[in-house]
Amino acid sequence: MKVILTEKITKLGNIGDAVEVKTGYARNYLLPNGKAMRFTRENVALFEAQKAELTARQEAAKKSAESNVDAVKNAKLHMIRQAGDTGQLYGSVSTRDIARMLKEVANVSVESAQVMLGAPIKSVGAFDTKIALHPDVIVPVKIYVAQTQDEIDALVSGKVLTFGSKKVEEEVVEENATEEKAVAKSEEKTEETTTDAE
Q1: What is the DSSP pairing of strand 125-134 with strand 88-93?
Q2: Do 45 and 82 sit in the same domain of this protein?
């Protein structure tokens, strides 16, 4: 579907650009949120008439985003989560969780789509990500995920948390070795039985 962008959208285009997008993306996100309008002759004329107003609104949104940069940079994004012996989380930390925490600790409202996380966080540790307050205002942040406040303090001070992962790996290797021996023995017995039968 071809649409006209009514605001700048990262990786898509600037205000006023006519772009081809997937129909679902246009119908479910761009059009209902007022970020674009269908590409028709009438809408092109309408956009031209409203261009100055839309550009002014875009500039105001950018200034508003810039005023929140320090609050986001200084926000302590510390998440306490349950985890296993290896540091793997029971569940994960998603963009929605980060957006919610940013609202709580910095009083800055962002949508989960503005959190540039990539994949959800599934283990304990310190993670770098970015918050796109506006397509032109992207703020790098660090997220700390641990089981206790003491572990978070250790991560913040630059220490590396160690878990019993080696022990677990050794146990798994031992179990696999035992299983392989059992399989080898049963194969030997099968061969002996076959030879005896001949």
Answers
A1: unpaired
A2: no
